[in-house]
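Supplementary Methods, section 5.1.

A reviewer requested that the exact input to the structure prediction be made available. We therefore reproduce it here, unchanged from the version used in the analyses.
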Amino acid sequence: MTVPDGRPHEKCDAESTTLSLDDGDIHVRQDGPRDAPALLLIHGSASSTRSWDALVPMLTGSHRVIRIDLPGHGRSAEPAGGGYALPDQGRRVGEALDRLGVKHAVVVGHSSGGAVSTALAEERPDLVTALALINTGPSLDALIAPDSDAIDPSQWPPADEQIRRIASTGFSRAGYRIPQELVDDMRGMSFHAIAAAMRAVRDYLEQRTLPDRLVDLGKPLLVIFGEDDRRWRSSSAAGYRVVPDAKVELMPGIGHSPILEDPPRTAVSLLAFSAIHAGRTAA
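The structure derived from this sequence is encoded token-by-token as follows.
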């Protein structure tokens, strides 16, 4: 394996690490050569680093792929004091990258992870060279009202089949078999963590839309949106075109989770975008 100038990459196996930050432990997973350009993947609500499993092997040939479990998700602790505000989450992710020695990264966020990615870029513009948002609604106006079962805190955690019904809108077609890992991730969270994380995203979008924030940031932007998204109106992706030179790609036949529904097509778009921007110095 070689870098563009012909020098061989340093090979390194997958590594899982728990970083002890002041306000709680953060779990990080790294794959690919450590001297390759960094590609940071941030999952959505009620998910974890495992949501990227199918995609990661397609990215490690040319990238140091870093995945982070957001606070209260996966193997990361709930934040001290229970705060999930997105600026705080962005700061925590930035601290984790500092601890890993990462100076610059192309940042990819799925669903609400795109909002966290934006918050990271606002808090730490020095770290973020470019942003890719996958099925991230630009504003609350784009949200499709859920028709799945409401979560009853007194009945937490739900049974597997209820979790599958709740998660079903994350995919383009009825009957899609939700991976057991995603069911386990949601069941493993506290009700407070799920509710607080989702409320934090709503608060962030209410304060200011993502396109408005991204215009000010001035970072290169790729937006990928499954046309059959059942959580956010895919037509809302056009709202990102106010960002200068933003690239917006719609995926026919794909729902809210291109990273699971069509990893190869998603990887092609991410790799092409990163090839242009990975070597760019963050502003």
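The longest strand covers residues 24-31. These observations are discussed further in the main text.
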